[in-house]
Description:
This protein is mainly alpha-helical.
Amino acid sequence: MDFVIISFLCLAILLYFLLGGADFGAGIIELFTSSKNRSKTRSTMYHAIGPVWEANHMWLIITIVILFVAFPKIYTTMSVYLHIPLAIMLVGVIARGTAFVFRHYDAVKDQMQEVYNKIFIYSSFITPLFLGIIAGSVISGQIDNQANDFLSAYVFGWFNWFSIAVGLFTVALCGFLAAIYLIGESKVEADKKRFIKKAEFMNVAAVLIGMLVFVAAQVDGVPLTSWVFKDAIGLSAVCLASLSLILLWYLLLKGKTKVLRILAGFQVTMILVTISYAHFPNFIRFKNGTTISLYESIAPVKTVESLGWALLLGSLLILPFLGYLFYKFQQKEE
């Protein structure tokens, strides 16, 4: 049952990044859109994510529940040492969702609409930024579990070059995913071309910031190069991500958009495999060289079995209906 729990944890993280990340990316795309085109972008975005945006946060909830129940040591450590970026990220999720609803469904259209727009746009940037910072922090080896002062214990563990670079990389990936997804939602050729340009811009940004991540890793002593290029799985994932990138650019330049979503999702998945596989099952790395492993920190057998069966049975009930929800709302309007 340990394998089932860990598989669900990895799957929930991946799906939240692919689906929730694309939702955040829609706000990022709007941030980098000129004022004259923002209304068109907004309209396309509402059709794409409006009906299902809330469902995507299910994967974040599942991730938190799994960590809380099955890996309490990991949950506690993150809650203590990363409570500042976690709080900012969660405030961003709430602010973004609230602004999304009010700017679209508010009965009174007044100057507050502009306030809602700004909250939505900037929280769409801040939330994945701190999501990436948290992800970078747990593997950076900068968390000091023996710190004696506030800054060392609760700030420098996440406020470092590597974690911030990973945060910016996450923002670029979310924007890239959103642009790719929005291409397929565009009914007007001019809008489709505009989103293709956004996808190209975000992809170039992701590549450049990805290079910055390696530089920051070198500065902060994170063995990222070793994880990526000295591990067979990591190297294979890099090669596959690179090949998919070449194919994706070819299809973008040719204007062929049918398989772009699959390619973008595959590319991001390979990037996550590249970063995470080499140090698996270690989930958190500390400054003193110690780690917290998924296998070593797992809850008692009875707890794991109960959670495992709950996840298996719950997935049989939830996943078919979730798939049907996406199917219905992705049908083109007649």
